[in-house]
Amino acid sequence: QRLNRPVAPHLGIYKPQITWYGSAFNRITGVALSGGMYLFGIGYLVAPALGWHLESSVIAASFAAWPVALKVFTKFALAMPFVYHSLNGFRHLAWDTASMIENGMVQKTGWAVVGLSVMGALGLAVFV
Question: What's the pTM value of the predicted model, to 2 decimals?
Fold first, then answer.
């Protein structure tokens, strides 16, 4: 009898909001940043045993040989999660002080974090 019960439409009936996407992207960027650091750290530790060259000078020389468009794209792809997660962290710190927690401000600051993240990541990718 339990198998014949209808499934509640819990997510399908609600209109998606910036807060949903922002929360999910904040978690995804946190996992990607920490996971990437763990993977690189493990790779750096086992590199001598496997004959890999992950020294900073080798990585910098390899990166310097790439076409400019690929460099900018790679730097943007690496900077975007970091910038978004950092700015969204400041947003959460503001919420901890019980400021900007009203629905309207939450949506405005959500879009502000998205816009500032794209601009910041582009700035880092192009000028650094």
Answer: 0.85
